Known about the structure:
This protein has a domain at 3-65 and 99-109: hypothetical protein PF0899 fold (2-Layer Sandwich), CATH 3.30.2320.50. Helix content is 24%, strand content 32%. It has two helices and six strands; from the N terminus they run αβαβββββ.
Amino acid sequence: xxxxxxxxAVVDTAVKHAAGRQVLLVSVRLGHLRQVVPDSLxxxxxxxARDTVCEGARLEYEVVAARLRCEPCExxxxxxxxxxxxxxxxxxxxxxxxxxxxxxxxIEVHQEEPACIV
Length: 118
């Protein structure tokens, strides 16, 4: 259920950067290792956006695949479940290359047309 707190943080970030303008779209990057359920994130985003400049905005997400690298042998591999031992040398000194992301990549806001002066 941590999708509620993630959604709240996404809305807070978008509201802050929108500077009072209506938000139309929020794009986020979600690393696979964050274990965020995208459908739940969208549901909670809509709830958290109520009565803010994000109300009615669309939430788009990109799920970033997880990749790990073994420091001793430098082997790099993709993972679908948390298994943090190198499949090549069985080493345990691995680092996350990608898949740990949780970020607002961009927001799209409504820009009012400047008034025409005749």
